[in-house]
Amino acid sequence: MPVTINGVELTDADMEQELPLHADAPNPMRAATTALVLRRVLRDEAARQGLDLASEDDAIGILLERHAPAPEADEAACRRYYQANPQRFIVGELIEADHILFQVTPGVNLDMLRAHAGAVLADLLADPSGFAEVARRQSNCPSATVGGNLGQLGRGDTVPEFEKAVFALPAGGLLPQVLETRHGLHIVRVTRRIEGRLLPFEQVHESIASALAAASRDTAWRQYARLLVDRADVRGIDLGGAEDDRVFGSPS
């Protein structure tokens, strides 16, 4: 069934141009279709209000500025964010970590792999001295050749779920549970920590204000887009699901 917005059908050419922009989405086809619907309803509203569509992007920008203004973050809001998220403003923090990776490959029995990783971890919790040797024999990471050693890591060097776990460990700490990330199952230990320093608020105030303003603007734009989509005659796709709430923002 074709997708139409206010009587205008999305074309294959539209989709071919938009689809590569959403290659990393869980459902690229739906994400591309949703983005095209969003752009069309914004364009139609800009035209309805008599804005010059010679530059479609400029017209949509003016429309959003008029109808979805977002307040700037004041100093109090910036200070609250700074105090609630100190780890974001620490520089120079480093750890040295080792890991054993059990890679999840196609066809692997995940329950059995989890059980095996858990058994290996239990042995290492009882006697951590064998970590490097176990890594050499069992890890699916290239670091196995050096006993699982990953070297020095800073924040942002690894995937978020790995970073969160390892930066919470003390030096000499072995994570007491198997860590699951997009790369597989990990047994992780931190061998050394280099503590960073917290940047003063005055040094990061401007960047915090910019980030909070951008987040506020994004929320306002998504809510306005949701309102326009609800008013539009959209056929061929139901935009009421949770997946679309992540695009437009949850309706209030």
TrEMBL record:
**InterPro entries per the record?**
PPIase_dom_sf, PPIase_PpiC, PPIase_PpiC_CS, PrsA_foldase
Going by the UniProt record, its keywords in alphabetical order are: Isomerase, Rotamase
Put simply, this protein is called: peptidylprolyl isomerase
**Reactions listed under catalytic activity:** [protein]-peptidylproline (omega=180) = [protein]-peptidylproline (omega=0)
Q: Which GO terms describe its molecular function?
A: peptidyl-prolyl cis-trans isomerase activity
Enzyme Commission designation: 5.2.1.8
Q: Please state which protein family the record places this protein in.
A: Belongs to the PpiC/parvulin rotamase family.
Signal sequence range = none
> Per its UniProt record, what Pfam families does this chain match?
Rotamase
List, alphabetically, the PANTHER family matched: PEPTIDYL-PROLYL CIS-TRANS ISOMERASE HP_0175-RELATED, PEPTIDYLPROLYL ISOMERASE
Q: Cite the PpiC domain residue spans from the record.
A: 92-192
The scientific name of the source species is Achromobacter insuavis
| Superkingdom of the organism of origin | Bacteria
